[in-house]
User: Fold ATP synthase subunit 9, mitochondrial from Aegilops tauschii subsp. strangulata.
Amino acid sequence: MEVQAQVLRIINKKSKKEQRRKNVTRKVFSRLEMLEGAKSIGAGAATIALAGAVVGIGNVLSSLIHSVARNPSLAKQSFGYAILGFALTEAIALFAPMMAFLISFVFRSHKKL
Assistant:
């Protein structure tokens, strides 16, 4: 009987260690899943800036049309400023997907062993 009791104690100790190990890996997996979810939310939020760029381009074009309608003699100068406005707004529109790709693919969330 004593031998069986000792064997059961050893088995219980091993199983407790395994349970602790499993609990730790569950915590790590849940943290990794949370990081993956946060990365997806961040990438989605970064692409929202594309909508802002579209609105900005619309405002630049609208302002160009209004300024040419008010003063046609300054159409060439206004067009130069409009092109500058388009370029700056387009730069923001290019930075948004770049940040989304950086968040999605460059920032690693896996744990190195």
